[in-house]
Amino acid sequence: MGVFLVTGGAGFIGSHIVDELVAGGHEVRVVDQLDPAAHAGPPGYLNSSAAYAFADVADIDAWSNLLDGVDGVSHQAAKVGLGLDFCDVNAYVHANDVGTAALLRVFHERHLKSRLVLASSMVVYGEGRYTCAEHGEVRPGPRAAVDLDAGRFDPLCPSCGCPLEPEPVPETAPMDPRNVYAATKLHQEHLCAVFGRETGAPVTALRYHNVYGPRMPQRTPYAGVASIFRSACEAGQPPQVFEDGAQRRDFVHVRDVAHANVLALTAPEPVPGALNIASGHPHTVLEMAAALVDALGDGLPPPKVTGQYRLGDVRHVFASPARAAERLGFTAQVGFAEGMREFATAPLRRPPAQG
């Protein structure tokens, strides 16, 4: 059995990783600052078999002793979502980039060669992969506000202006972050990659797609779209679906994501590099909203397609999980219909303001 540290281990994904590691007989340590933007206090689901330090990962002196004797670190601590506006930039950089730098500094100072598994994200890709019938694979630029205002949501071929066909994104796709959160996630990958090259420590970057499931944060600016839709349903309101609802995503269950982390920490040999962690079965955002409404029963209003948009959002991004299957042995087990039925009534983490 191993000894593992999970940063952000009181959070949505981190807590599920802790649970699976504990269930596997491992010694588990956790550092989590219980960010007041996401937590009303220590959540009730914390695993009593893990050792917790409630501290900012950027504060090295508060938790660095937890690295003594560890076999691997699952680095989940981060501020997620798009936030409120660009004024969140300092908070994102501190939580995501400075926190990662602090962790890597301790690794380096202690000459650790333990495995490092980074929680990355599909947002590093920007728009997904597209092909044009005439020009093959193309990279559309950022969508313009004038097109979005007119309801023209799908990007067009930059060469001929024809419609494009979205395709699964491989890990070899170019990086193109299009909001502050995405930029910090890519910087985390870069910092960890540089650290791995200079020290020889094995680094695995797991690029999560749209994760959902029990313990998601509820009704905060940092909550995922699945949580926001479910909160609307609970209030008897229709989920507000941006654009035309046809934007495609890969919704992957949190237990599958946790299992991918455990595989990366415990595989007989390290699996370095970037891996898409996704179900491999994309759905539209409107399909996801409708699945939640259906799962919650009669009497709820159907999703409302608003035509609104966020300029930092991308149109279609979904993944090929083939590399994760080949190198890590990861295949998502929770299907979309099953997962959404469970998520419709699963306990969420209460928002601090109402906590």
Task: Write up what this structure looks like.
The chain has 355 residues and is of the alpha/beta class. It is 30% helix and 17% strand. It has nine helices and 16 strands. Strands 3-2-1-4-5-9-14 form a seven-stranded parallel sheet, sandwiched between helices. A three-stranded antiparallel sheet has the order 7-6-8, with no helix packed on it. Strands 10-13 form a two-stranded parallel ribbon. β6 (129-132) and β7 (136-138) form a beta hairpin. The longest helix is centred in the first third of the chain and has 21 residues, at 89-109. The chain is globular. The relative contact order is 0.16. The model has no long low-confidence stretch (mean pLDDT 93).
List the helices and strands and how they pair.
Blueprint: E1 3-7, H1 12-23, E2 27-31, E3 51-53, E4 72-75, H2 89-109, E5 115-121, E6 129-132, E7 136-138, H3 145-149, E8 165-167, H4 180-199, E9 203-208, E10 210-212, H5 225-234, E11 240-241, E12 248-249, E13 251-253, H6 254-266, E14 273-277, E15 283-284, H7 285-296, E16 304-305, H8 322-328, H9 336-343
Parallel strand pairs: 1-2, 1-4, 2-3, 4-5, 5-9, 9-14, 10-13, 11-16
Antiparallel strand pairs: 6-7, 6-8, 12-15
Helix pairs in contact: 1-6, 2-4, 5-7, 7-9
Task: Compute the separation of the termini in Å.
Answer: 37 Å
Query: What share of residues is helical?
Result: 25-40%
Structural class: alpha/beta
Strand order of the largest sheet: 3-2-1-4-5-9-14
Number of discrete helical segments: 9
Q: How does the major sheet shape up?
A: 7 strands, parallel
Number of strands: 16
Write down the overall geometry.
globular
**What fraction strand?**
15-25%
SSE series: EHEEEHEEEHEHEEHEEEHEEHEHH
What radius of gyration results from the CA coordinates?
20 Å
Residue-averaged pLDDT, rounded? 93
Poorly predicted tracts of residues: none
